[in-house]
Amino acid sequence: MANYYVNKNAQTTGEHEVHKDGCPTPPLPFHRQPLGSFPSCRPAVVEARRYFGNVDGCANCSPECHKR
């Protein structure tokens, strides 16, 4: 299980990226909305949609959820 968070700031393409602890390209700490601990990025993305409608996984730490 890993701890996940979503970037409160949208990317230039409009989506909010879901990251996990240890990501090589994390947002600044004050831009993170904690999501909780999950076995993979998929349930973390579902949780992030409670905060933001347009959500995508980080290409670096959650590539299996990165769609853009």
Write the layout of secondary structure elements.
Layout: E1 2-7, E2 16-20, E3 32-38, H1 41-48, E4 55-57
Parallel strand pairs: 2-4
Antiparallel strand pairs: 1-2, 1-3
- Overall number of domains: 1
**Major beta sheet summary:** 4 strands, mixed
- Beta-strand portion reads 25-35%
| H/E element sequence | EEEHE
Overall structural class, as computed from helix and strand content, comes to mainly beta
Low-confidence stretches: none
Mean pLDDT: 96
Strand order of the largest sheet: 3-1-2-4
Helix count? 1
Task: Provide an overview of this structure.
The chain is mainly beta. The protein has one domain. The chain has one helix at residues 41-48, and strands at 2-7, 16-20, 32-38, 55-57. The chain has a four-stranded mixed sheet with strand order 3-1-2-4, with helices on one face. A hairpin with an 8-residue loop joins strand 1 (2-7) and strand 2. The relative contact order is 0.30.
